[in-house]
Amino acid sequence: MSNFVNQLKNRRSIYALGNNLPQSKDEITALVKEVVKESPSSFNSQTQRVVFLFGDAHKKLWEITEEALKPLTPPEAFPNTQEKLKGFAAGAGTILFFEDQDIVKNLQEQFALYADNFPVWSEQASGLTQANVWTALAQENIGANLQHYNPVIDEAVAKEWNIPASWKLRAQLVIGSIEAPAGEKEYMNDADRFMAFG
């Protein structure tokens, strides 16, 4: 088994997160910056944008999320939602992934033939970047789980951290120390998933 495949196997959704990371904020941000720079984007457009939230800023994000979800969640289900959010807040930080829509629009204007594809390629670049960052963090024994509370929290997040208007929130990667391992992963049958010819 290649080392790369082992790295992919090591990247799992860790929900039992703590705030006991041996790495400093600076070490984590430096690693993530390098990974983002090396992650591909169509036309090398570099549409990916990242915001790091640690400490009080990290906790504030999950307070914002709770406030946004309360009016949208049935009262009987809200305690479960609160518990879930409390689990995220217990981590060491959150990495917010954005895509710069100004670049996407500029490329659509420059290359009209491919205009419909640029939003799709932007999403692909974001997904690749999220997976690369997540895998790199797993190699450092940093637990993580990926959340998608956008677009519910977009406006409040933009206001709280003065996010440029052209940045579109795509995902939230919660990170922290691994307090309990991921559960067993199940795989669908290969015959239902793969085809090979020639």
UniProtKB/TrEMBL annotation:
Residues 8-176 form the Nitroreductase domain. It comes from the Bacteria. Transmembrane segments: none annotated. Signal peptide: none annotated. Pfam families: Nitroreductase. SUPFAM superfamilies: FMN-dependent nitroreductase-like. PANTHER family: FATTY ACID REPRESSION MUTANT PROTEIN 2-RELATED (PTHR43035:SF1). This is Nitroreductase family protein.
